[in-house]
Amino acid sequence: MSESQELRKKLIEAKKLILDGFVEQGIDLLSKIITPENIKDSNWIICNVIDTASCDAVVNILNSLGKIFDISACANIKRIVYCYAITNKMSEYIDLALDTIVKLNKKDSLDKLYNDLKNENIKPEFLLKIGIAYRKLGAIRESNDVLRKACENGLKEACEKIKEVASKVM
After folding, report:
1. Most buried residue among 62, 124, 155, 157 by CB atoms closer than 10 A?
2. Residue 118's pLDDT band (boundaries 50, 70, 90)?
3. pTM of the complete model beyond 0.85
């Protein structure tokens, strides 16, 4: 078996462990097999896990091994924000994911993310981040709607952001 096939086999084994609920064992296996030399050939595994694993598993994996992967290459990057919001945990990966959505000009992804989260009981800080991402995309109305919800949930910084836009418009 070639080195490439062996790597792929072990990555799939780690993914299976993660999906079967053995997250720590999957993380441990990934940390042993992924090296600076094979990271480019291994990056697909993180995107695959983000798409298919439970939110708790996604958060655990990113917190443990996220720095070695290029998550901006993942198609379903909004799920990173969703998973952190659902588990009520803050992380630099939220900002990275939202920045990627903005860079790719994916307002539709942001719309879907917000729609998926708006009936969930999440911290208003997540709403603030989504509102700022909308603003960066030039979607002022959506930004203000999300910021207003964060403001109503007690986040003063969101209230200030709304006032900031209002004063610029007038």
Report:
1. 62
2. confident
3. yes
